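Researcher: Let's do a round of design. I'm pasting the structure tokens now; please hold your answer until I've finished.
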């Protein structure tokens, strides 16, 4: 899966986002992480094609979420949607 990596000063958690390129809440989440210096990776599911998309969708299904954005922190905690207070608490911001 070819994810986009965004560098940041906060590297204490592994943060991965499943997003859609056209989703405003996904854009807000990406910007929030960037503004707070949180290193993260994301994949725009709607831009993936073929076998890569099937792999992404299979991995995404493991989160138990079918909404965007979905954030996975340290491979364990799943946050669905742009929930600022929940994100802050989970990342210690």
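Researcher: That's everything. Go ahead.
Model: Designed sequence:
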């Amino acid at each position: 899966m070819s994810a986009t990596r965004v560098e940041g000063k906060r590297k204490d958690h592994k943060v991965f986002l499943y997003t859609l390129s056209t989703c405003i809440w996904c854009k807000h989440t990406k910007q929030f992480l960037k503004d707070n210096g949180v290193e993260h990776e994301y994949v725009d599911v709607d831009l993936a094609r073929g076998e890569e998309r099937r792999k992404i969708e299979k991995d995404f299904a493991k989160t138990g979420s079918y909404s965007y954005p979905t954030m996975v922190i340290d491979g364990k905690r799943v946050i669905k949607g742009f929930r600022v207070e929940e994100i802050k608490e989970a990342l210690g911001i």
